[in-house]
Amino acid sequence: MTITKAYIVNHLTQNGGLGKNDAIRVTEDLIELMKKRLESGDSILISGFGKFSVKAKRARRGRNPHTGEDLILEPRRVVTFHASGILRDRVSGKARS
After folding, report:
1. CA distances from residue 41 to 11, 12, 26, 37, 83 in whole angstroms, order as listed
2. Could you give all domains of the chain from N- to C-terminal order, each with its CATH number?
3. Segments in the chain below pLDDT 70
């Protein structure tokens, strides 16, 4: 199952005691805050969940898989995610000591 913004809004209205408009606003504000911080190069650490970081990728040689043509991939920035130990343990089914 994919969790969508609509799913989050529904969850907040049913379990979080928020009205639908408030849940929409909170969801949109949180996502916008995260986008702005990542765009500026900051990391986002959510305790017990993980860390979103922006990493710089250098230019590199690549190949078009369709044509086989060599090309240079431009430098770029990518978002990475590293799960916290707590999240890794929960996903793997291990209990944390």
Report:
1. 30, 29, 23, 6, 19
2. 1-39 (no CATH), 41-97 (4.10.520.10)
3. 96-97
